[in-house]
Design brief:
Elements (H helix, E strand, L loop, with lengths): L4 H4 L11 E6 L15 H4 L3 H8 L2 E6 L9 H8 L11 H8 L8 E14 L2 E6 L7 H14 L2 E2 L2 E9 L2 E7 L30 H20 L8 E8 L7 H5 L3 E4 L3 H9 L3 E2 L7 H11 L5 E6 L1 H7 L3 H19 L5 E5 L16 E7 L13 H5 L4 E4 L3 H8 L9
Parallel strand pairs: 1-11, 1-12, 2-14, 9-10, 9-11
Antiparallel strand pairs: 2-13, 3-4, 3-7, 3-8, 5-6, 6-7, 12-13
């Protein structure tokens, strides 16, 4: 049945009801590893608090975008926030920019970047390490300073680099004669070559110009950094302007607070009009304290945890297990805040066996003080979630379920 829930059922969404906490363990899902006894990271991890909660909750799996489709973080987050991820496209560049506090101008396009280890072969830039060994943020800042000193503009387009975190940066292209409808320079594969961005849709002068400028920028950076011991190139993705999208509060009638330390996720929640908590350290302990301090002020809390995804992308099974166990150790503190509804899931799966995002369904757990059919057995793992009472649903259905469990939906019809 193709319809927009928030639009179709807008009249039954209430402004009053229980408080909802949605914990997103980024890249949570995994697949079995032969090296670790045929278990996933969730199955291998020691998670006494998650196990206890799983028995008194409803479990299931969700599909972020579509069966078989591997989603990026943008569409998968939009889906769990209840937006159609195909119709509402938010690209990574603008999310990164907003996440680090940039106020975009009307004629400004942003791209998300990775510093990378590269070599030059026959005039082409070959990718050796897409994340430059996850260099420190301090090194990132120094490289950005160097590039900003030496590159001011290309063909009338103003260029500016902004450090983000570790190997990630954001770059701004400012001109009234460019378009954001181009692809990436990042081949997303070690051993491949950095490419000139493809034109999306009909070819225009504005699209061709930004494509040419973006590729020229990668060549200039490669020349400047050729002697740098940490990074010798840049990979650019998600060229984008600020999109026009309905706010989360208007859509779901929820006053919301985002508690996320990573810039990209702060950026997407800013685009959706959520309040974004200030974090100085970004630790789980600090995030939980912010949740406690603001619990009376908001209806909905988005609580993001990044370490699971970072370990998965690095192909590090043991580090992902450790990240899951760290979250489990703090889970009781979240439970003790006593939300009316607590959901724990991921935005997508990042199996360490694949060292990247995957198409696999994502584990989902929903605890509610009332209105819930408890599973009564099993742990919070992929295989146990397959047997859960929620079943396998699209991620866009999570928000309506949370509203229902929180008593925030009226009866439909007479």
């Amino acid at each position: 049945m193709a319809y927009d829930f928030a639009e179709t059922f807008r009249d039954i969404i209430k402004t009053e009801g229980g408080k909802i906490v949605l914990c997103v363990l980024d890249g949570l899902g995994g697949i079995p590893s032969e090296k670790f006894g045929g278990k996933t990271e969730l199955e291998f991890a020691k998670t006494p608090n998650l196990d206890k909660l799983a028995k008194i909750s409803a479990k299931g799996l969700h599909i972020p975008v579509e069966f078989g489709v591997t989603p990026g973080s943008g569409p998968s987050h939009l889906a769990i926030f209840g937006y159609d991820p195909v119709k509402n496209i938010i690209k990574r560049g603008i999310m990164e920019a907003l996440g680090i506090g940039i106020e975009p101008e009307a004629d400004e396009i942003f791209a998300r970047g990775n510093f990378a280890k590269c070599s030059v072969e026959n005039g082409k830039i070959k990718v050796l390490d897409r994340r430059a060994g996850r260099i420190s943020t301090e090194i990132n800042e120094k490289i950005c300073d160097t590039l900003n000193l030496q590159i001011k503009e290309i063909d009338g387009v103003r260029i500016k680099f902004y450090p983000v975190k570790e190997h990630r940066f954001c770059v701004s292209f400012k001109s009234n004669s460019i378009s954001d409808e181009i692809g990436d320079t990042d081949p997303q594969k070690v051993g491949a070559y950095i490419r000139k961005p493809e034109i999306i849709g009909e070819k225009t002068e504005q699209k061709e110009k930004i494509s040419t400028v973006a590729y020229e920028l990668t060549l200039r950076v490669s020349e400047i950094l050729k002697g740098n011991e940490y990074a010798q190139g840049i990979l650019l993705r998600g060229f984008s302007k600020t999109p026009d999208i309905q706010s989360f509060e208007e859509r779901w009638k929820l006053r919301s607070l985002a508690i996320a330390s990573y810039p990209m996720y702060r950026g997407i929640t800013k685009i959706l009009g959520m309040s974004v908590a200030h974090l100085s350290e970004g630790t789980l302990k600090e995030q939980i304290n912010v949740l406690k301090q603001n619990f009376d002020k908001y209806d909905f809390f988005y609580f993001h945890y990044k370490k699971t995804d970072s370990a998965g992308e690095d192909g590090n099974f043991e580090a992902k297990v450790k990240a899951i166990e760290e979250f489990d150790q703090h889970l009781e503190d979240i439970i003790n805040i006593k939300p009316d509804v607590l959901a724990i899931t991921g935005d997508h799966s990042t199996p360490s066996e694949m060292a990247g995002h995957s198409f696999h369904p994502v584990p989902l757990l929903i605890y509610s003080k009332s209105r819930i059919f408890q599973d009564g057995e099993g742990r919070f793992t992929e295989r146990d979630c397959m047997k859960g009472v929620i079943g396998t649903i699209y991620a866009t259905k999570i928000l309506p379920l949370l509203l229902a469990f929180a008593g925030r939906l009226e009866k439909f019809g007479a």
